[in-house]
């Protein structure tokens, strides 16, 4: 299916990721028009507005009044958003210990060391 300008439609997840990347890079609330311009893609402003609204409704973004509309900014940084997704996945599986065991066993040695250090720091056992 062709989009505006004859480009093929991009997957929704790719657009959402691009919108979030623009907002994280900005560090300031942005309107749909500002996000759309920063995306540097041939998108309808209404497409960008819809993505921003849906992210707001999911709690990923907060919004503030800006003129006759709103400006949006992320509630968390990229790492916080990823951590939240990981936590929700873990919470949704009744085999929590098995999931954690499989996750830990799949880590690289460097990631294992980092995880150990972070757990020690969280428990106040820093070296």
Q: What do you see in this structure?
A:
- There is one protein chain.
- The protein is mainly alpha-helical.
- The chain has 2 domains: 4-74, Winged helix-like DNA-binding domain superfamily/Winged helix DNA-binding domain (Arc Repressor Mutant, subunit A), CATH 1.10.10.10; 78-122.
- It is built from 6 helices and 3 strands, in the order αβααββααα.
- It has helices spanning 12-26, 32-39, 45-57, 78-92, 96-105, 109-122, and strands at 30-31, 61-66, 69-74.
- The protein has a 3-stranded antiparallel sheet.
- The chain is elongated.
- Mean pLDDT is 87; it is low at 1-7.
Summarize this structure as a short list of keywords or feature phrases.
59% helix, 11% strand, 127 residues, Arc Repressor Mutant, subunit A, single chain, 6 helices, mainly alpha, disordered N terminus
């Amino acid at each position: 299916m062709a989009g505006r300008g004859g480009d093929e439609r991009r997957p929704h997840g790719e657009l959402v990721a691009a919108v979030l990347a623009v907002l994280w890079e900005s560090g300031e609330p942005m309107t749909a028009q500002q996000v759309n311009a920063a995306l540097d893609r041939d998108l309808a402003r209404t497409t960008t507005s819809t993505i921003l609204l849906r992210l707001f409704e999911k709690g990923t973004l907060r919004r503030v009044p800006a003129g006759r509309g709103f400006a949006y900014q992320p509630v968390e940084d990229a790492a916080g958003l990823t951590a939240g997704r990981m936590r929700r996945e873990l919470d949704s599986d009744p085999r929590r210990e098995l999931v954690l065991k499989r996750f830990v066993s799949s880590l690289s040695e460097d990631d294992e060391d980092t995880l150990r250090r972070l757990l020690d720091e969280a428990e106040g056992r820093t070296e």
